[in-house]
Write a structure and sequence with these properties.
This is GDNF family receptor alpha 2. The chain is an all-alpha fold. The protein is built from 21 helices and two strands. It starts with a helix and ends in a 15-residue tail after the last helix.
Length: about 425
């Protein structure tokens, strides 16, 4: 046993020294030249400090101004600028949702990535850093607050959405920002104008960006046993101001309007990246990450593309932007596809149900937390960029080697009052 441990230690030190002696990089020729991404604000600073990158960046922005991709690529100066920037930190940069200079970061990102694809893409890559964290801790809180695991009779009588609002009132920041958006979104401007939607949207964005998801998710995704609870859940974002309108616009027109704004465009792209239904995963979500999907959904609230529950049904979960596919003409199929990413999305539905149940994804095939709705099998489309990792394979190879050595030498034998405006 002593000899086995000594060999293991020697092997580990040898592999560690080898890894330090040569720069680590992802395996495979397809990732040649890979660089760990930095946020676009920092990447812009690095580019500005280097004369060649700075001048090429200015050139590329001029090339993209008012030109389509083919026209841009036909210009040799534009091609040269693009080739230089592809080797700079700007090309791989990402942003963080809610960061201090988020809008500036997104403007830098889209200044490079807009126009580099042929025509308008149905699904755009997200400019945000991939979400790798899970919702396990928040799910456990949801389980406690929703009564899961408690007396079923007590849990069945509880209005979990009302409980979520009371919990928000016990947190100073949550109460302050919630009171703010309720006041703004309920303020009538005139007999013909029921509210200032622009200000209402801004207040909602501040609430969902600045209040921890421990509180916001409980209000958005609370589980309901009756219609009164489900109606309270639907009313969370004050839909008469933030969501509904006299007429429903066409969904593709609404998407086009959203894509004229860098912030709205980014949130929509992030939703598609994290909630697009996949038949290749257990939960129908990309990488089986419920947190990424729920966070992306919440991130769209407060924009023209704001989604919400379509009715007060406590059993059926259907969400949608305020739009329809009437008047789509020969674009009706594309419009229906866009709309179904909300109304018939098994990834989003499973994520909402899982949060309401207080359960996280169980990647083991044994004892799944609930029966996840599987996405229908469709023709495979190109996937969006996956999360990049700068980890090496050292740990796995050393551990497996050590384990086999040790096994051979060792063979013997887990209530305050709710705000009144939402009555």
């Amino acid at each position: 046993m002593i000899l086995a441990n000594a060999f293991c230690l020697f092997f580990f030190l040898d592999e560690t020294l080898r890894s330090l002696a040569s720069p680590s990089s992802p395996q495979g020729p397809e990732l040649h030249g890979w660089r760990p991404p930095v946020d676009c604000v920092r990447a812009n600073e690095l580019c500005a400090a280097e004369s060649n990158c700075s001048s090429r960046y200015r050139t590329l922005r001029q090339c993209l101004a008012g030109r389509d991709r083919n026209t841009m690529l036909a210009n040799k100066e534009c091609q040269a600028a693009l080739e230089v920037l592809q080797e700079s930190p700007l090309y791989d940069c990402r942003c963080k949702r809610g960061m201090k200079k988020e809008l500036q970061c997104l403007q830098i990102y889209w200044s490079i990535h807009l126009g580099l694809t042929e025509g308008e893409e149905f699904y755009e890559a997200s400019p945000y850093e991939p979400v790798t964290a899970r919702l396990s801790d928040i799910f456990r809180l949801a389980s406690i607050f929703s009564g899961t695991g408690a007396d079923p009779a007590v849990s069945a009588k509880s209005n979990h959405c009302l409980d979520a609002a009371k919990a928000c009132n016990l947190n100073d920041n949550c109460k302050k920002l919630r009171s703010s958006y309720i006041s703004i979104c309920n303020r009538e401007i005139s007999p013909t104008e029921r509210c200032n939607r622009r200000k209402c949207h801004k207040a909602l964005r501040q609430f969902f960006d600045r209040v921890p998801s421990e509180y916001t998710y409980r209000m958005l995704f609370c589980s309901c046993q009756d219609q009164a609870c489900a109606e309270r859940r639907r009313q969370t974002i004050l839909p008469s101001c933030s969501y509904e309108d006299k007429e429903k616009p066409n969904c593709l027109e609404l998407r086009s309007l959203c894509r004229t704004d860098h912030l709205c465009r980014s949130r929509l792209a992030d939703f598609h990246a994290n909630c697009r239904a996949s038949y290749q995963t257990l939960t129908s979500c990309p990488t089986d990450n419920y947190q990424a999907c729920l966070g992306s959904y919440a991130g769209m609230i407060g924009f023209d593309i704001t989604p919400n529950y379509v009715d007060s049904s406590p059993t059926g979960i259907v969400v949608s932007p305020w739009c329809s596919c009437r008047g789509s003409g020969n674009m009706e199929e594309e419009c229906e596809k866009f709309l179904k990413d909300f109304t018939e999305n098994p990834c989003l539905r499973n994520a909402i149900q899982a949060f309401g149940n207080g359960t996280d994804v169980n990647l083991s095939p044994k004892n799944p937390p609930f029966q996840a709705t599987q996405a229908p099998r469709i023709d495979k489309t190109p996937s969006l960029p996956d999360d990049l990792s700068d980890s090496t394979s050292l740990g796995t190879s050393v551990i497996s080697t050590c384990t086999s050595v040790q096994v051979r030498g060792h063979s013997s034998g887990t209530g305050d009052t709710e705000l009144g405006q939402l009555e």
